[in-house]
Each structure stands twice: as structure tokens, then as C-alpha cells.
Amino acid sequence: MPKETVEQYIGNVTDTVSSFWHGLSITLSYLLRRPITTQYPDRTELPVRDTLPPRYRGFLEVDASICTGCQACERACPIGCIQINLEKDAANPKLRVVTQFDIDEAKCMFCGLCVEPCPTGAIQHTREFEASQRSVRNLTFRWADPENPFPVYKVVKGAEYFPRAPLGSILRARLEAKRWDAPGPEFLPPDPNAAAPKKAGPGAKAAAAKPAPAKVAEAKPAEAVQAAAQTAAPAEATAAPVAPAAPAAAQPDGGAAAAPTPPNPGDGQPA
Amino acid sequence: MPVNYPPAPKHTPRWMIAVTLAAMVGIPALILGAVLVATPLLQPGVLDAALGFGPETSPWTRDLVYVAAVLGLGFLMVNFGAIFSGAISWYERRVAGRIQSRIGPNRAGFLGFFVWIADAVKMILKEDLVPAEADALLFRAAPYFVLVGFACTFVVLPFGHSLAVTDLDVGIFYVTSVTALTVVGILISGWSSNSKWALFGGMRSAAQVISYEIPAGLAIFVPVAMAGTLSMQGLIRAQGGFPWEWFAFRNPAALVALFILFTSQLAEANRTPFDLPEAESELVAGYLSEYSGFRFAIFFLCEWGNIWVLSAIAVTLFLGGWQIPGVTAEQIDAVRGAATVPALAWWGWNALSLVVFTAKTLVLCNVVVWLRWTLPRIRVDQMMGLCWKYLVPIAFGCLVFTLFWQVGVGARPQLEAITGGVLFAGAVVLALLFGRRVRLNIQAVQGDKFDLSNW
Predict the structure, then answer these.
(1) Which of A23, A25, A180 sits opposite B4 (nearest CB)?
(2) N or C, which end of chain A is more exposed by having fewer CB within 10 Å?
(3) What is the enzyme's class at the highest EC level (chain B) (predicted)?
(4) Domain count of the fold of chain B
(5) Is residue A176 within 8 angstroms of chain B, CB to CB?
(6) Could you give the ipTM of this predicted complex?
């Protein structure tokens, strides 16, 4: 270690004193100034969503009244957080209705790729972002009611304007109607043979994974991934012949179901 | 349909402001009032008269009553320490917020004052976890060592003219001894956690506290040499009410010793810039890493409570303690009267001395908080270098200088008065210069004026 001279020693002491002098005066001056921080959300002058830029990509909103049911958004979604199911209307076989239009906002990465292919502008990003939920399942927004499906929108040839509801108004009504601590929906149907509710958990999960390959035959590839991942209640209803049988088949080997991996629904899809 | 949240109010409701201000003023006033009333009344002499004890009373009965009285007083003092540490944890966060241009806690009550109560409730409700491979007995015991080291100082810490649990002859020596228990607790907690981070923290703390005991002890010798006593009350009575009668200004070496003592006590209390034992960025939380729930709360209670202890010791030794300007301690003694219960005037002077002492201590507490948000944490080698290369030699120099100074004062008593006046005037000039500098700092930012709003 180099030898310290007396000048250095005294210099260190004076440096310490002067840096205390400067440092304490600076922090005291900040103590007496107004904080820059604005308190969110109570003291903001406007609601924050109204101060955001117009092209902000917040939660997705679907205006069902101008949705053509083309599923372009579903195909465009790189992570598959949109799921759409179409059926023929029972009363009018020529009319197709949307029985399911689910967007999982918890998965959505807000890339905006679904908005671009939409022919009518039914799906749009809003400026809403304050929608935290206790149950993550409540972040799946269902834009179609399976009980009361909406008919697809027929585009008038050469139309340049589509009667869309004001952007954000539908979503805002939804968010305000939903409590933040509402219980999440039961995605998996209760197992009829379940004796012990504890065992039903893994068994039902395996059952949810198993019917997926069966559905690949009739469903589109992207849908199959969705069905396997989510297995939402309406999806089960559409796949009526498969769904009720599968849990019963999976139940006897409830514990062992996890060990032999069910065939990955992604495999063999190109065929 | 239920709405997610009610619209947040733009202003705190009036009743909330009233409740918070009442708690802010009421809780300290209540506990300090209890100290003011209980401390003189629970002394042996008063108890003897009140309970009719005479020479014929069994010593067992008397001892039992005395011990019960002292335990009651101790309970009161520890409660004061606990409430103070809670309140200053809120205050420190508010100050930190403003120094960093933000707001700080503001949700629980007006100005977020009740955040310390919320913290305590949260800590008590949490699981008291003991790591699987830890030495469970020592791990559980460690917080109590720290708590005892903190609480025992209140035995001699004065609050006012007659407001101390007891006035030991070896008061300041006793304080330095019992605060050493804290480092035992920290070392035990670091060792028994069976974690590398905790062990590092514990060892650093041991190295730090034991090193800084030496300059702290040497600096304490300076007022002791000036007063000729180790008793806390005796040290205060040797000073006067006016600033130029304080030890800090009566002797140039004592002023240096004040800074040395203050620095060393910051290090002993593990306060920034000496918070190496729990350096968050290096050691997770140091010796606290494995603690949770109530035990963690005890550690932090002691850490914040120590701010009061270290400020009160510095005030006692160097800054005149509870001495009221213009009134000597003997004058207060004289108005007590011969009755068992002292006269009303005596209570009034005692209350005033309590206010003086509390005000001085709170000013020093502010400095402690202010320093924490000014200085960065120093390195271990810097910490050791500061102690052994600077503080210890300078403290020795101060002590030797003081011994010669006392000889000089014995020959020419007016020496102390002249030095007191000169040094105090110098301190006032420095304070004015500092204030000017702060104003210039504020003006340096265009359009950013002195503003205490936006709480």
C-alpha cells in the first residue's frame, strides 16, 4: 500500500467535510421542492386512458354487430389467444352464427396483428388498460354468447363505412360490470364419476388434453391448439360426441394419466 | 351492477385528516404525558410516603413494590421506544420520498401516517419461519438480544429534569455496555440462520460495531472529563441552558468529539452510510435475510428505535440535554417543595424540560434521516479505514486536548465562556451560509421554487 502523506490525510478530511456540506445542501433543497411524481390514480387531472395517444394498444374490443366471422384475426394471432367458433343457424341453415369469440387478454401481447386483417374494423385495440382481476380466467373476454349467438355481418359490396360502436364503449361497459374480485368461471365441466374431488383435478386435466387430437380431424389447426389449451365450456358443447366420453375414459387411470404423454396436438397437424 | 372501485376522492376527507392529526399529536402526547406523570411518582421516596412504609416494614414488601414500580416505568419507556420507532419509520419514508422527488406512503390515513400500524399488523400476521437447517434455538433467541440491548438503554435515558427511570452513577458507561448486546444478537442471528448472506452480514456487523465502539468510547470521555461524572443527569447538570453553555461549544475538542460520537453511533446502529451488515444490494438483507414475521419486526423496531437512543445520547452528552435556557437545574429543584407530591410549578418546569429535550432529540433524529438519504453506502475497507485511520486518532487527540483544556479552564474560568461564544457564533454563521446555499440550490432549477405542497 502506498504511503499516505500528511497532505493527503488532511485532504481526505477536508474532502469529507466539503462533500457533506454539498451533499446535505442538495438533498435539503430537494426536500423543500415539489415532488415531480403525480399520484396515480387519484390526483391525475384526467383519467389516464384519456391522456394516452390515440394509437395506444390496450385491451382488444370486438363490435359483434359488424363482425363478419371471417376468422382472419384468429389466424393472424401469433400466440393463439383468440378462439372463434361458427355454426349454422338452426332456424335458417343459410345463416352462419358465431357461437364463440373468446379473447384471452392474459395471453395477448398487444401486437395488433389481429386488427390489421379485419375487413370491417370490428376488432380494435382500445385505450383501456386498468382491468386487473383476481382470477386470471376473468381476463378471457367472451364477445359471443353461446346461448344466444350473433349472426355474421354481411358486407355490402363497395361499402366504405361500417357502423361501428364508439371505440372503447363496449369494453368500458364490460369492465364496469365486472367486479375485480369476481370468481373465475369453471372452465372444466364437473366430472360425473368423480368420487373424491382431489383426484378429479389431474384426471380432468388429462381428459381435457386427450380429446384434443380427436378434434383435429374436424377442427382447423389453430382451433385445435386452442381447444387443447383452453377447453372452454362452449368448446366442449360443440364437440358433443367426444367430450362426455373422454373424462370417463380417463378417470380409471387418473393417477397414471400424467405419465404417458398424450400425443401433442401440434404433431401431425399439417396432414 | 357493482362498479370496480368507487371514484377516488380528490382530497382526503376531513374526518380522516382530523383522526390522523389527533393520532399524530395524541399518541406521543399521551405517552410522554404518562412519562411525565409516572416517573417522579414511582420513585422510592414517594412510594414510601404514599403506602405508609416505615422502618418497621419488611424489606421484602418494599423491594417488591419498588421492583413493580420500576417494571411499570420500564414498560412505559419501552412502549415509547416502540411507538417512536414506528412513527419514525413513516417519517423517514416521507422524507425519503421528498428528497427523491416522489411522494412516499400516502394511502393509510392523511399523509399515509398509519402505514406503520399497517406494517406492524402485516408483520404479525405473517408466518414466523425458521429455516430447516437453521439452529432453531439461537435463531429464535437472536431478536430478543437485540431488543434487550435497545430497551435497556431506556433505564438511564433522561426525558427531563426528573424524568428518568433511574439515575445510575455509571449511566453513560451502562449505556455503552448494554448497547453491545445488540451486536451479540446480530451475530447470533447471522450465524444461526445457516445462510451465507446472513453470516456475512453478522460478521460485518461484529467487525463494524466493535471497531466503532473505540472512537465512540473515546469521544464519550471528552464530556465525562469536562463534567467529572458518568451519570447522565450529572452530565446534563454540568451544562447550561443556552447554546454557549453546552459542552459542544465550550471546548473546541468537544465539538469534534460530537461529530466523532455521532458518526460512530450511526455505525453502531447500522444506519446508512454504515448499513453494510444489511446491505440490500450486496447481501439481500444481511443478517435479516432469513427472518420473517414478528422476529423481523423486532429487528426493525430496534433499528429505528436506536435513532432515538443515539440522538438522545448525543443531546445528553454535548447539547445541553433538558436544560431550559435561563433556568438552572437548582432553581427547579428549589420549587419542588417539601411535600411528598411536588408543587405545581415543579411539574410545569419538568414539562418544559421534557419539551426541550424532545425537541433537541427530534432535530438530531432529522439529521440522521437526512444523512441516510444523502450519503451512499461506504465500502468495507473504507468503513474500517475511517474508523482506525481517522476517528480513533482524532478522538485520542480530542481527549488529550480536553485534559489540558480542563487544566487551563481551572486556571482561567472565563476561557470556557469566550470559546462558547465564539464557537456558537461560528455555528450560527455556518448555518446561515448553509441556508443560503440551499436557497441557491433551489433557485438553480428554473421556476422550481420553495414548495411544500403535493403531500
Answers:
(1) A180
(2) N
(3) translocase
(4) 1
(5) yes
(6) 0.78
